[in-house]
Specification:
The chain is mainly beta. The chain has two helices and 20 strands.
């Protein structure tokens, strides 16, 4: 609008008055609304702009993040000191990275108060981040919004997956954390089936299944104890009861993947509640290790030795104990 030199008591011309209407309509349309006989549409437009004013979408690639404002409004004209940009990452980074916000040019993304370049896994696909612009350094400082719930919360929910078929592979987002916790809820198996675990070290392209790749031990509260070297880690000390599906009881519990790094043996520890033939719950503890160093464990497969998974979900959490 270009209305100048107006004082109290002055009149607007018809053309000048029309500019008010046009600007109001532009604001309503650019907020995603359709013009209607609604006296609060301009208010709704202003509310929408306020709510997603710093929200951007990522259409770039790993290490090169291209961020575009989610609203249909004029893009940023410049980056001011302290400007904050929020986005959901489309790709996991593998090293030093840049962000190009609103076409203003690629700027380095750093961490620790703009002191250090990013390392592999500092940005994880599917998680939310905030960039704060440092004008003096002409770079962004990275904050992980997924890790800010509560007070120094080390757990980040990565994904929730339903159990089905003969195996469930979790190898898409297992990067950037020191540990992973798998929360099993309501899992059921075919009669006489045993649940097992295998590791991948190449993002799920293959899973280790050599005859003696793993060493494992499992025990139930009734003293039944099994152990051995095998092509997988057996979760149960005995095959799960043939009646477990019929008695309406599920397998629930927590499994943690420790040291998924090249400098140590990748290992898991789990504690489950398992039904027995009488419909009584019994505890089942197990642990297992992959017996060779093959780099970073970045995939976990849950499988059964026969039959299928018939029900259940698993929530995958990334854990940073330094948080």
């Amino acid at each position: 609008m270009n209305i100048v030199n107006k004082s109290t008591g002055d009149f607007y011309t018809a053309a000048e008055f029309t500019e008010f209407k046009n600007e109001a309509q532009n604001a309503i349309l650019s907020s995603g609304q359709t013009l209607a006989s609604n006296s609060i549409q301009l208010k709704q437009a202003l509310s929408r702009f306020s709510s997603f004013g710093s929200s951007f979408t990522d259409s770039g690639s790993a290490n090169t993040y291209t961020l575009t404002h989610i609203a249909s409004i004029d893009p940023l004209a410049l980056l001011q000191d302290g400007a904050q940009i929020r986005f959901k990452s489309g790709n996991t980074n593998t090293g030093a990275s840049t962000a190009n916000v609103a076409g203003l040019g690629a700027k380095a993304i750093k961490k620790n108060g703009n002191a250090d370049a990013l390392s592999a896994g500092d940005i994880v696909a599917g998680r939310y981040y905030e960039l704060t612009y440092n004008l003096a350094d002409t770079s962004f400082d990275l904050a992980d919004l997924s890790n800010t719930v509560g007070s120094n919360n080390p757990y980040t929910l990565i994904e929730t997956v339903n159990f089905s078929g003969s195996q469930v592979d979790l190898d898409t987002n297992l990067t950037g954390f020191t540990e992973y916790t798998f929360d099993l809820r309501g899992v059921r198996l075919s009669a006489t089936a045993r649940m097992q675990i295998q590791f991948s070290f190449d993002g799920g392209a293959s899973y280790k299944s050599g005859a003696s790749d793993y060493n494992w031990r499992a025990a139930t509260g009734n003293g039944n104890d099994n152990a051995g070297n095998a092509s997988e880690i057996n979760i149960g000390s005995t095959t799960f009861d043939t009646e477990q599906a019929g008695i309406g009881m599920d397998i629930d519990g927590l499994i943690t993947l420790y040291t998924p790094i090249a400098t140590g043996l990748s290992k898991v520890l789990g504690y489950l509640a398992v039904p027995n033939a009488a419909g009584q719950a019994q505890d089942n503890e197990f642990c297992g290790v992959y017996q060779a160093s093959s780099g970073t464990a970045n995939g976990v497969r849950f499988l059964v030795d026969s039959g299928t998974f018939t029900a259940g979900t698993i929530k995958v959490y990334g854990v940073n104990k330094d948080a």
